[in-house]
Design a protein that fits this description.
- Helices cover about 40% and strands about 15% of the residues.
- It has 18 helices and 13 strands.
- Helix 1 packs parallel to helix 5 and helix 4 crosses helix 11.
- It is globular.
Length: about 425
């Protein structure tokens, strides 16, 4: 099959249609296939690319995408060739898989087209396909490190075929995907600690009273264990200076920064050039939807935080800014809205919306459960336009609740 832009777009659309993805279909049996057997078989079919590069493996309820991008940007700034695998994508499928920011369309097309018969025969999930593509590209590119973000959990995640990473990281533990990972913080922590490997240093970004004993028990006699909050890594004494310059502006980046600096310390990377990479992560990595400032007047912020653990930080930061606030909000039906509603700022104007996916909770259902005055505008872009009409120069417009809400809003600000 010959590469053309139309052929590439058609193939990507076909893969989305034929192979259920969590992003499109939620955690259905077709989209989420726990276990490593299919991924191990795919890795064998591809020539074991997972064994051909150094990796940093990152899990966590929240923060793993930011930490992955921060680490990758920091390492790239030192002149290294760095692979990065994250999910979901916001605008372009190729956001998921990059080496120093890029993966050619031609490469994606050539590999996926040639693998399709095997993929169909072996009934892979969308995430397994993308994991295999990422690992093959990193191996073919000869990366110095690949920064790998888990999709869900850790123990049974497709990325966990990595046999000997240089470092494993767990950013945070909170309540999300409880039907799959467990209904208590210790159970969720145990699933994520499944990425620990014998003899490989493990770093914990946030330790809670309920989760620390789980990590200590799993690591005991098995692997070295570090807690970021107990480390004093190089450059941490300059944290206020660094945070004031970072283009990832959420308050939670303070915790993520300590995790990233601690990870680099464990890896033995103390080059001061990492600071430029950390400060300019959003720009360097084209990293969208993490407290992303889309416009200055009025200030428009977009964030894909979608569970109570993440939104507690976001809403608290918005309230601390003490400015008129308009919140454009949509959520997926499988999220715990009842845990989120009490966190939502009382002094705000709310516009509830529904992104164009069957997974979305209808905007009217959000408004009914919210129980306070609000507007319902089903189309995301119409909801954002309404917010812009209502805003004054000192207003903050926050767009969030879901990756889908943010991805549909972003084109208005390009």
């Amino acid at each position: 099959m010959e590469f053309t832009l139309d052929a590439y777009n058609s193939l990507i659309e076909d893969i989305f249609r034929r192979f259920p993805s969590v992003q499109k279909d939620g955690f259905t049996s077709g989209a989420y296939k726990p276990g490593l057997e299919r991924m191990q078989a795919f890795d064998r079919y591809l020539g074991y690319p997972s064994r051909q590069f150094k990796s940093i493996h990152i899990a966590g309820t929240n923060g793993k995408g930011s930490v992955a991008n921060l680490v990758a940007s920091a390492l790239q700034s030192c002149g290294l060739k760095i692979g990065l695998f994250t999910s979901p994508h916001i605008l372009d499928f190729r956001e998921r898989i990059r080496v120093n920011g890029k993966i050619p369309m031609e490469y994606v097309f050539k590999q996926l087209a040639s693998w399709m018969p095997w993929i169909v025969e072996n009934d892979l999930s969308f995430f397994e396909i993308t994991t295999g593509l990422a690992f093959k590209y990193f191996a073919d590119s000869g990366v110095d490190y690949a920064v790998i973000e888990t999709g869900l959990g850790g123990r049974l995640d497709s990325t966990n075929i990595l046999e000997k990473p240089e470092l494993t990281v767990i950013t945070s533990i909170g309540f999300d995907h409880m039907a799959l990972l467990g209904d208590t913080l210790p159970k969720i922590a145990a699933e994520k600690a499944g990425i620990f490997k014998e003899g490989v240093p493990a770093l914990i970004g946030e330790a809670l009273p309920d989760t620390r004993p789980v990590f200590e028990s799993k690591a005991n006699g098995f692997c070295p264990l570090y807690f970021a909050e107990e480390m004093d890594p190089p450059f941490w004494d300059r944290r206020e200076e660094i945070l004031s310059q970072m283009d990832l502006g959420a308050e939670i980046q303070r915790q993520n920064l300590r995790t990233v600096l601690s990870a680099l310390d464990i890896l033995g990377i103390h080059d001061k050039r990492v600071l430029d990479g950390i400060i300019h992560t959003a720009r360097n990595m084209e990293f969208h939807g993490r407290w992303e400032r889309l416009q200055k007047d009025p200030l428009v912020i977009a964030d894909i935080g979608h569970n109570a653990h993440a939104l507690r930080h976001n809403f608290s930061q918005l309230e601390a800014m003490r400015r008129p606030l308009i919140i454009v909000y949509g959520i997926m039906a499988d999220k715990d809205l009842d845990a989120i509603i009490p966190l939502m700022p009382r002094m705000a104007t709310y516009i509830f919306t529904s992104p164009a996916t069957p997974r979305a909770l209808p905007a009217k259902s959000i408004a009914d459960r919210f129980g306070r005055p609000s507007m319902v505008i089903d189309n995301v872009q119409d909801a954002v336009q309404k917010a812009l009409e209502l805003a004054t120069p000192d207003t903050i417009i926050y767009i969030g609740g879901s990756t889908f809400v943010v991805s549909e809003a972003l084109p208005l600000f390009e």
